[in-house]
Write a structure and sequence with these properties.
The chain is α+β, with helices and mostly antiparallel strands. The protein contains four helices and seven strands. The radius of gyration is 18 Å and the shape is globular.
């Protein structure tokens, strides 16, 4: 009985998918929406969560190419993001994304200062008293 249980456990572990290990501030391409369209996203969840074997999701904010300035958006230039053109992040579009939908890490990450700005945008999207 114990041998069968070990064999079954081994088979389950072998079939378990190895998930990506994104880090806070990294830019990734990911599949978004029901049509599984490729899109750039910023990882905003904390690294202990991102790197945990138990967490199968990350918190992300998708990039948009249509620039819209508002209290919950920030405009980023290609030199900062490595993306082909100017883009913006809209803090009110924060979403939980399964790690298995992450495709590829992009070469650049956002600075700690920019990540604090992004977190402020997210907070402003639900807290009217946020600075």
């Amino acid at each position: 009985m114990a041998m069968r249980l070990r064999k079954l456990t081994s088979m389950v572990n072998e079939t378990r998918q190895i998930l990506p290990s994104p880090r806070r501030g990294e830019i990734w391409t990911a599949y978004l929406g029901e049509s599984r369209q490729r899109h750039w996203v910023l990882i905003v969840s904390t690294d202990p969560r991102n790197l945990s074997d138990r967490a199968e999701t990350v918190l992300t904010v998708p990039f948009a190419s249509r620039i819209a300035e508002a209290p919950t958006t920030i405009v980023l230039q290609p030199g900062e993001t490595g993306l082909p053109g100017p883009s913006c992040l809209r803090g009110h579009f924060i979403t939980t994304l399964p790690k298995k939908l992450l495709i590829q890490r992009q070469p650049r990450s956002l600075s700690g200062r920019r990540m604090r700005e992004v977190c402020a945008l997210i907070r402003r999207s639900y807290d009217p008293d946020a600075p």
